[in-house]
Amino acid sequence: MNHDPRRTTVSSLPLSPLYRAESLRKIGKHELDVLVVGGGVTGAGIALDAASRGLSVALVEARDFAAGTSSRSSKLIHGGLRYLEQLDFKLVREALKERGLLLQKLAPHLVRPVKFLVPLQHRVWERGYIGAGVTLYDTLGGARALPRHRHLSRRRAFEVAPGLADDALIGAIQYYDAQVDDARHTMMIARTAAEQGASVLTRTRMTELLREGDRVVGAKVVDLESGAEIEVRAKTVIAATGVWSDDMSKAAGIPAPFTVRASKGVHLVVPREKIDLDTGLILRTEKSVLFVIPWGRHWIVGTTDTEWELDRDHPAASRADVDYVLDHLNAVLRKPITHDDIEGVYAGLRPLLAAKAAATTKLSREHAVAHPVPGLVIIAGGKYTTYRVMAADAVDVAMEDVAKPAPPSWTDRLPIAGAEGYHELWRNRATLGLPMERAEHLLGRYGTRITDLLAMIDKRPELGEPIPGAEEYLKAEAVYAASHEGALHLEDVLTRRTRISIEVTDRGVTAAPEVAALIAPLLGWDAARQQREVDNYLARVKAELSAQDQPDDVAANASRLDAPALLPG
Length: 569
Hints:
Strand content: 15-25%
Mean pLDDT: 92
Radius of gyration: 23 Å
Helix content: 25-40%
Structural class: alpha+beta
Number of helices: 18
């Protein structure tokens, strides 16, 4: 097992159905050093951190990689410019250092620069106040990975943002941050963990913690695809379950070391041509900020920040949420965005550490690690950008239970799958035999693993065709999702391996049967199972659209729950 920091590449390992079957057999045979519960970005990061130190590791996730919060963020890798106002310099410095690592070394194929415009409304004081903050942002830890900010006059601001209304600004400041496809990044971290020796498993639910006296010694897990129950013994269980953290304390029969509250954030996706900008925007709202983020041929606009105490698996966006985002966006646009312009909507839950605060927006994003009983570590809070730091902290605490020598974390030097040789391949992208736009699209999703897709297309040229109803993606990408990226259901492909569910106006309805037919042979589906996957997906789309027509959270939640749960074959 590789834990030599000088060796930063290993052979590609597909998360195939065969890999899954072998991993399920393996995890019940021998005691592990670490069992990770939760397949979001923090859990995947923990699995990678622990495996890269030479520990034996398994990760179990009840749904799919990034199925919860980690696929539903604003898709930004950022220091948190607004945290400077809260004088949280430590958090900003830490996040900016991580941003630099991801951009330059760890995931340059998945994380890329994005520029934002901060409109100014007040003369003199606001430019000085915000300018000072952005100057600090440019200079804190690792921030020089991106160009420095610049001040723009009113005329220059309208040149880069002609779609803004005449009264939207008197000047502006432009600065840089970074963005990521959060679901793909999380999956690629999990895949890297597998290449370091971890067994990473989706659709595998922890049902019970195993105890010997006061010590946690593992967990019972159920393979939701087959119904088989497996007893997994481990020296330590690390729970990285986000908004489900309190459930882990209940499973252990202990008081919660901290309470995690869920705050709902809703984002809209609209076509790029609907907003005439060549820069992202960051707008102040009465509660927080609203981002307008360039996303390929689209814009992502969000987010909201409201308490959520309903179904945590499927948080629902209501009409009120959509109207809130549209109202704040349209307040600064020359030509308003309408409901008919919206291509996609998604809602996610932020896990916020509870504190004595009246509203979730006042709670810190910093994380906490608890070791409440021997053999159990619980981590919660934090922000997407600092997942690697959180993972290292959790494994450091867990080493007390593992009780064997292991090196300190070196994931700050361990590239994520697809990063090895990426810069050279990007420079030579014209030689890949693809139209330039297509080559850049694939490199930005797969990095150097693009060679796997090109090999598939060489063998089956029809896989080089676009997916009907989702022409931004090739058929090979759907097949690869099932053969190499651990997708087990149609929803996994349409929602997380690709972003078809939010990037086309029909939410993937046209593409669904096409994609199902492509992946069915790989996943062993018969015609009935294939049709059931399509029907389940269409029911989910219908439920989400119905929820978005409901006036409030309670009604939206009820509508969203009308969709059937994913069922095994």
